[in-house]
Design goal:
By secondary structure, the protein is of the alpha/beta class. It is built from six helices and 13 strands. The protein folds into two domains: about 20-160 and about 225-255, Vaccinia Virus protein VP39 (Rossmann fold); about 165-220, N-terminal domain of TfIIb, CATH 2.20.25. It has a seven-stranded mixed β-sheet, with helices on both faces. Strands 8-9-10-11 form a four-stranded antiparallel β-sheet, with no helix packed on it. A two-stranded antiparallel sheet has the order 1-5. Strand 2, helix 2 and strand 3 (about 75-80) form a beta-alpha-beta unit. About 35% of the residues are buried.
Length: about 260
């Protein structure tokens, strides 16, 4: 049974990926290749029934969905993604793969507004918890904890940067598609005690000829796993870190 999550009344955010969604997989493909083994090991090692829902929060274009589906070949998957631009890539991936198409449902909403299953075997929250402020995280932990099955888990990650700091401009990704090359640069500036403003610059080249250049900015709440462990503990959850993960990550569950 699916249950409508209590709506918290947050105003819908603009779609921050309108310009950049077409290049998102250039950023995420290598990332998910690097962490695939760690995620698969966690999911296969958990006590998850084949009928349990797996909820992927911030599913993006579906790179994470594909990894989840490979790790757990029988479970229904719910992909939660608020960005319409990102869902174009997600739905294209699902429709092109009959197996995914049969198993993966999509929620076009942020976590606080999504219709979710009453019980969930695992939550995957990768690359998005920093978009939640303290109030939204408190709601997430409370809501997630009440939906988890007794042996359920939540896999949550954070950035390697655990406090606001200056991050000098560097090229974070580059890929060739046909005769074009796509470069993505990242830099960061602290704007609050717990917030860093990321600026991403996207460039498209044909040989040495620059075809396009644009920038986007996103604000990210910066913290380490220790803060998440403290927040989760208030809802009766414990955590174990994943030393083999290429990004700081932990598995949360009941004691």
């Amino acid at each position: 049974m699916l249950e409508v999550t209590e709506v918290k009344g947050y105003a819908p955010e603009p779609d921050h990926y309108i310009q950049s969604a077409e290049m998102y997989d250039i950023l995420s493909e290598g990332h998910w290749q690097d962490r695939k083994e760690s995620v698969v090991t966690v999911l296969r090692g958990a006590s998850i029934s084949a009928s349990d829902w797996i909820v992927d929060v911030g599913a993006g274009t579906g790179q994470s969905v594909a990894v989840i589906a490979e790790a757990l070949p029988d479970n229904p998957i719910l992909a939660v993604e608020p960005s319409a631009s990102m869902r174009v890539g997600l739905m294209t991936r699902l429709i092109a793969d009959p197996a995914l198409r049969a198993r993966v449902s999509v929620r076009a909403a942020a976590y606080g507004d999504a219709c979710l299953p009453d019980t969930v075997g695992a939550f995957i929250v990768c690359g998005c918890i920093g978009f939640f402020d303290a109030e939204e995280r408190a709601f997430f932990w409370k809501d997630m904890a009440r939906r988890l099955t007794p042996d359920g888990i939540a896999l949550v990650d954070v950035m390697a940067v655990s406090a606001p700091c200056v991050v000098d401009d560097y090229r974070i990704a580059s890929a060739a598609v046909g005769t074009n090359r796509y470069d993505i640069h990242l830099q960061g500036q602290p704007i609050k005690d717990d917030v860093i403003r990321w600026r991403l610059r996207y460039e498209e080249f044909d040989g040495a000829n620059l075809l396009r250049r644009f920038e986007i900015e996103r604000d990210w709440h910066v913290f380490g796993l220790d803060l998440l462990q403290d927040e989760a503990r208030r809802e009766g959850l414990t955590a174990r870190s994943l030393p083999d993960s290429p990004v700081p990550a932990a598995v949360f569950s009941r004691p």
